[in-house]
Give the backbone structure.
Amino acid sequence: MGQPAAGGQCTVVVGCQWGDEGKGKIVDVLAEGVNVVARYQGGANAGHTVHVGEVEFILHQIPSGILHSGKRCLLGNGVVLDLHQFVQEYDELRRRGVDLEGRVGVSHRAHLLLPYHRLLDRASEEGAEEKIGTTGRGIGPAYEDKAGRRGIRVADAIDEERFAELLERGAARAREKLQAMGGFDAEADAALDRALEESRDLRSRLLGLAVDVGLEVDLALARGERVLLEGAQGTALDLDHGTYPFVTSSNTTAAAAATGIGVGPTRIDAVLGVVKAYTTRVGNGPLPTGFDPEMDEHMRRLGGEFGATTGRPRRCGWFDAVLARYAARVNGLTGLAVTKLDVLDTLPEISICTGYRTPQGVAEEFPADTWGLESVEPILETHPGWESPTHGARSLDDLPPRARSYLDRIQELTRAPIRMVSVGSRRSQIIHVH
Ligand code: GDP
Ligand code: IMO
Ligand code: MG
């Protein structure tokens, strides 16, 4: 028997590829009809783009519901909160006219990502034989401290003296590591001191926003409200289920939404997976359906495929149905949102990968062997392109028949029903499938 059913509706929005699927756009569209939006993992490695009219916002830590006035936006315990970056993002949104009064809350249980985590991230990438190609935001070292039970949580800032002492201790440990890694000179040391002083100064601002996120979400659901749990990164970047070690340091998949917010799994009613109509990846690691350099460049231009956080070019490839089907299973998807369909509008032919040819035979399931994945040959099924614009479509009937059959095939191979199709970066450029 589960818990008594809550009156509200709780939906997880999760990335089903290597991140940047358009989660920000989808959350922004859905936020209109909900009361609360909460992030459950990751940190400022995320870059979620939302277009409101002509204006672009890139959100790193604050949930993508923030651009709808009155919606409550929370950062759960599973997030690693970069205090400096968070305050900057908050102030920048306010400067741009977003009313944030009483709208943002952070979990007392969230771990702080401190200036030394960024330094450790960069130093470890520089020294690594096998570079992950991280965003350099300090994510790995912050989660290492959390798992190593050395982390500093928001609640640790309540006692000013203790907070200062914990920061001191964390910095001393980091200094030792940084010195051993090399390149940490007196100038870098002094800059770290200054940054930590700023962290201490931000204490009261942080505490002013600290709440019990799990309790708040639970109460909202009990009142019959609607809640969105916004994932960051994507399934193939999940620490357990992704292409390890070329992953991020948190669980990105839907199950992590329960632990990362502090609600029971029985509180979650729906899981919406977001996939691009093709595939992209930024950072290192295998991309089985990756294009040759010329097509890669072409798609990057068509799709504007540059990282929202780091500006790095994203590698591009065909839609990988093996990965999408795996994501549908691992996340328990109840629906699919397909984004960036319009990016394919001009292509004469469009392929979908239905399996991988490996030395052991054809694989239809996403393999655990990351190194083997580097050399699989994608089995491609080629469809004629629709070669006409889709950005004005607002229902499936408005789409060219070939675009509809492309979507049908994605749905059939992924085994998850398509609920939304995005045909442009703006709010209005969306098809709701009923
Ligand atoms: P996220 O990290 O999953 O939120 O995705 P990003 O914001 O990093 O990257 C998605 C990019 O695609 C952003 O620049 C969006 O503005 C853009 N985008 C989202 N949906 C669509 C769409 O349907 N069509 C087009 N052309 N662009 C889109
Ligand atoms: P959103 O939420 C795309 C990738 C990095 C790198 C790996 C590890 O915008 O979809 P990290 O800094 O997390 O230790 O880097 O994960 N990565 C992302 N790629 N979108 C993201 O977030 C990402 N966050 C991390 O490029 O390969
Ligand atoms: Mg992104």
Q: What stands out?
A: The CA atoms of residues 40 and 82 lie 14 Å apart. Residues 9-108+212-432 form a domain with the Adenylosuccinate Synthetase; Chain A, domain 1 fold (CATH 3.40.440.10). The longest helix spans residues 160-181. Confidence is low (pLDDT under 50) at residues 1-5.
